[in-house]
Write a structure and sequence with these properties.
With about 160 residues, the chain is of the alpha+beta class. It is built from four helices and nine strands, in the order E-H-E-E-H-E-E-H-E-E-H-E-E. The strands form two sheets. Strands 5, 6, 7, 8 and 9 form a five-stranded antiparallel sheet that branches. Strands 2-3-1-4 form a four-stranded antiparallel sheet, covered by helices on one side.
Length: about 160
Amino acid sequence: MKHILSIVVRNKPGVMSHVSGLFTRRGYNIDSIAVGVTHEPNVSVITIVLRGDDRTLTQFQGQLLKLADVIEVKALPYHDSVIRELVLIRVSCKQEDRTQVFGIVEVFHGRIQEITQDSILIEMQGSPRQVGSLMTMLEPFAIQEIARTGQIALALKTEVD
């Protein structure tokens, strides 16, 4: 089962290392990790996606709260959250294939960032499923390079205002 942890931390050197080290020491793999400064320059949010049962999630939440620079830990509901990531993909592309690649990029609301004689650089942001689907659609054009960010997320508000 996939879980998303949103970890609010003090923005200090080494905090991300301490947080990720907690998972490493317990032999857990992190599917995705992203960190960014919030609207408060002294506070960052680390978003971690991991697999495990509810008991494991609860244990990690408790262990994370013991770290000195961790302010808050929230488990976000995976299916009731907005999850996004960014991908940059360079694909081989002959001139006669450009129209097809442009069509794929348009369907996924991506952007062409560069066109060379034999390649196209594509930028796209979306859910992990959308990013994975774009990559699958581009495989026939031979992916030369790829850079993919970690996932970020915010829970949807379910109460009616």
